[in-house]
Design goal:
The chain has a single domain, classed as Collagenase (Catalytic Domain), CATH 3.40.390.30. The protein is about 45% helix and about 15% strand. It has a four-stranded mixed beta sheet, with helices on both faces. α2 crosses α5 and α5 crosses α6. The chain is globular. The N and C termini lie far apart (about 45 Å).
C-alpha cells in the first residue's frame, strides 16, 4: 500500500485542503527509481529525495487539478520511472528523441494514454519516464551554490510536471510552471530556485 505524503515526508504541510469542497480519495503514483550510472552511488539519499519530491508534486497537482485542468483526479494505480543516468546516457536520449546532440539535466517522456475506458483489471496507468544526468546536475548545483538535494528535488519536480502536461514553450506557460515548482519546493522547505535569476533581471 502506498504511503501518504505526510507519512513519506514527516513535518511537511499537506495542501490537500487547498480547494474548498470534498476531495476525491488520493493515492500517490508508484515511482520506480533506476540507478544506471555510477556517479549516483556517491549520493545514497538520491532515491529518497526523488520519492519525496514526486510525492509533494503529486499532492499539489492533485489538489489543483480542478483549477488548472492538469493531472488527474487521483494517481491511484499510476506509475512512473525515474532513471538516474549520466551525461553520456542523457546525451544519447536527447539526440535520439529531440535531435539535440548534447547532454542536459533532465528529460521527460510522457506516456501515451490509451483511448477508451479502463477497468479494474487493466494494467496500471503509466505516466511516463524521467531521466536525470548526474554530471550536469552536480555541476549546476555547484555553480549555483545550491545543496545537491535541493537541485535534485527541483529537477524531479520539473520532470514530473512535464509528465502532467505542463511545459514552458511560451512565456505564460513557463511562468505557470515555475510558479507551481516554487509552490511545491516551498512545501519541501526548499528556497525559490529562480530567486537569483529574478534579482539579476
Amino acid at each position: 500500500m502506498l504511503k501518504s505524503f505526510a507519512e513519506r515526508a514527516p513535518g511537511a504541510i499537506s495542501r490537500r485542503q487547498r480547494n474548498s469542497g470534498p476531495m476525491a480519495p488520493f493515492a500517490l503514483p508508484l515511482t520506480e527509481v533506476l540507478v544506471v550510472a555510477d556517479g549516483w552511488r556517491a549520493e545514497p539519499d538520491a532515491e529518497a529525495v526523488i520519492h519525496r519530491a514526486i510525492a509533494a508534486a503529486a499532492e499539489i497537482v492533485h489538489a489543483g487539478s480542478g483549477e488548472a485542468g492538469f493531472g488527474a483526479a487521483s494517481f491511484g494505480e499510476a506509475e512512473l520511472a525515474v532513471m538516474l543516468t549520466d551525461d553520456a546516457g542523457i546525451r544519447t536520449l536527447n539526440r535520439n528523441w529531440r535531435g539535440i546532440d548534447k547532454p542536459t539535466n533532465v528529460l521527460s517522456f510522457p506516456a501515451l494514454q490509451p483511448t477508451g475506458g479502463s477497468g479494474p483489471d487493466d494494467a496500471p496507468r503509466m505516466l511516463g519516464d524521467i531521466a536525470i544526468a548526474y554530471e550536469t546536475m552536480r555541476r549546476e548545483a555547484d555553480d549555483e551554490q545550491k545543496p545537491f538535494d535541493h537541485h535534485l528535488s527541483h529537477l524531479a519536480i520539473h520532470g514530473f510536471l512535464h509528465l502532467m502536461g505542463y511545459d514552458h514553450e511560451t512565456d505564460d506557460d513557463a511562468e505557470a510552471m515555475e510558479t507551481l515548482e516554487q509552490e511545491i519546493l516551498a512545501q519541501l522547505g526548499i528556497p525559490d530556485p529562480y530567486a537569483d535569476r529574478d534579482r539579476m533581471d
